[in-house]
Structures are given as C-alpha cells and as structure tokens.
Design brief:
Elements: E1 2-3, H1 13-39, H2 45-74, E2 90-98, E3 101-109, E4 113-118, E5 127-131, E6 135-143, E7 147-155, E8 159-164, H3 167-178
Parallel strand pairs: 1-2
Antiparallel strand pairs: 2-3, 2-8, 3-4, 4-5, 6-7, 7-8
Helix pairs in contact: 1-2
Length: about 180
C-alpha cells in the first residue's frame, strides 16, 4: 500500500506564505484606516509592521501548528473499512467538504472505488464510497478561493470536494482508475 502526502492535514508553504501576507496586509490596512479616522494621525510604519507580524503569527501560525498536531494524533489512527476481497492500494489524510461542513478522515484507493472514511470526532461519521464507474471527471480546485490543495470528483449524479496533501498524485491515480 502506498501512502500519499504527509501524515498530517495542513496547507502548503506557498499557501501559508500567502495567508500570512494577506493577514499582515489586512491588519495593517484596518489599523491605518482606524487610526486615520479616529486619531486623525498615523503612527510610525514600523509600529504597524511589528503588530501585523505578531497578529499573523498568532492567528495563522499557531492554528496551523495545532491543526497539524491534532490531525496527526486523531486521524493517523483511522482505518479505512474495506469490502470483502478489496485491497487498499493507496491512502492519505484528507477532508471531505460537504455543504458548509468539512469532515476529516482518510481517503483511499481500492481496485473498485475511491473510499473516504471519517474519523470518530466529526459531527457525521461513516464511509463514502465512490465507484470508478460513477466518476465522470476529476479536477483540481481551490479551497476557500485561496488554497491550492483541493480536488473535485464529479460523478454522474453529484460531485465531492476533497482537501488532500499532494493533490497532483491523487488526481493522476484517480484518472488512471477511471480510464
């Protein structure tokens, strides 16, 4: 069996850099506007910069660190249930996005289907099985218009979006299966 991606859920370094820069600029812009409107004066530029860096570290860096730690412990122990005679060819940590909710767990490839199994701390638990014969298309997607680690699996009746590590490998393997 092949393990795809890392053993934790997280975002890539390039996405993390963009998010930190976005938060830094957002913080600086908000406080420049607030200071200008209410104080009618601006502080030195380095004051905004230092506070913006601290804001980004606390609200981007710390949550990312704890998400990696928690997912490594919780999701790492999840076992994907298989049908009789089915073997797991590849698996990796993933999240299934359904409506406004996100369910964390593991995504696996078998001979017949793409299988996602939620871990027990989600509001919904269970297994989603998408047979390759039902899949029309697999394509990359952005998550929250910002992160480049999503895939969309379009089926004959619906579509599913997954957040994965090593997106290109997942897309390649799934496309090989649906040929």
């Amino acid at each position: 069996m092949r393990v795809i991606g890392k053993d934790t859920l997280g975002i890539s370094k390039s996405d993390m850099t963009r998010l930190v820069i976005f938060c830094l600029l957002f913080y600086v812009l908000i406080f420049v506007v607030v200071d200008y409107i209410f104080l009618e004066a601006l502080r030195p530029w380095y004051d905004y910069l230092v506070k913006g860096i601290a804001f980004s570290a606390v609200f981007v860096g710390l949550p990312a660190y704890f998400i990696k730690k928690i997912t490594k412990q919780a999701i790492g122990k999840v076992q994907i249930p298989l049908a009789v005679g089915e073997d797991l060819e590849a698996e990796g940590i993933a999240s299934l996005i359904g409506g406004k909710e996100k369910y964390s767990g593991k995504l696996g490839l078998t001979q017949q289907a793409l299988v996602f199994h939620c871990y027990k701390f989600n509001s919904q638990t269970g297994t989603v099985r998408i047979y390759y014969s039902d899949i029309k298309q697999v394509k990359p997607c952005r998550i929250m218009w910002f992160f480049n680690n999503g895939i969309t699996v379009v089926t004959k009746s619906d579509h599913c979006r997954f957040v994965v590590n090593d997106r290109s490998t997942w897309i390649t393997l799934i496309k090989e299966k649906i040929k």
